[in-house]
Design goal:
CATH topology of the largest domain: Rossmann fold
Structural class: alpha/beta
CATH architecture of the largest domain: 3-Layer(aba) Sandwich
Number of strands: 8
Helix content: 40-55%
Order of helices and strands: EHHHHEHEHEHEHHEHEHEH
Length: 342
Amino acid sequence: MSKKGVLLINLGSPNSTKVSDVRKYLKEFLSDPRVIDTSAIMRSLVLNLFILPFRPKNTADAYSRIWEKEGSPLILMSKKQQHLLKEKTDIPIYLSMRYGSPSISETLIDIESDGINELFIIPLYPHYAMSSYETVEVKVNDELKRLTNNISTKFLPPFYNHPEYIDALIKRSEPFLKNEFDLLLFSFHGIPERHLRKSDPSHSHCLTCENCCEVSNPAHATCYRHQCFQTVKYFVTKANIPKDKYAISFQSRLGRDPWLKPYTDFELKRFAEEGTKKLLIISPAFVSDCLETLEELGMEGKEIFESAGGQNYQLIPCLNDHPSWINYLSNQIENFKNSNSN
């Protein structure tokens, strides 16, 4: 007999702002070969010699600036999303994190013990990248092979261009867009350029020419950059944002290798120096506010912009618990619920 369930998966957070907890979290995160995609030996050297001795303290300080009394903003919001979805359906909704707690393996054990044999997995990443969507897919499949062969799975594909996702982004932004602004900056989480090339199944399209994202190609199904551009295209078209009123950038780079450009911090400084006074910034790659939005964009970005002469800097919140976003997810769950059993 078929028994269906849903598993929401987000990135994760440390258990606390203690340096030891942040170090543990960063070690798990950055040990993922789809995040730092070098040999195991080189990855271990980079982690243990250059990152873990220094970065946890700074990252812990950053987390302490956004940490809520009840815990991590990302975890709290993910639980709220889970709760809101439970109110809209009668099938079980589970939650896990790719890194940290609750782990995918722990949650899958609970799912099997509850008798679930058809599982709808929702990676909470709108765009495909080997360091986000792909690593979730691989981790779930690996853990299921290790734990059980009694659960069939279906993954929600990247939804970067889904009309309901675009509508939710616009509705979330409307209170800010209705006020006067000089520029709307779409800041996406960055990835190394080499990740695009590795995700290109042909290994001959991505980043081979200046307009590769505009030339139709099967590589776009796994091209993070193309999908980010598509999100912006659909957003500005539907929201009637003129071409001279928006821009795109990429944030959160790590290491010295080239990452997707232009870099958000550089652009914030440049825009302010060139006369932009009122700036809106949104990060559609995140569906829940987290360290990268609240601290990196909301605090550091604001300081960069205002120090360079900008006057009004507003961060548009992530989708979080917005009704349009919850409705989109619940609609996908209902489609799964009403689908024929395998």
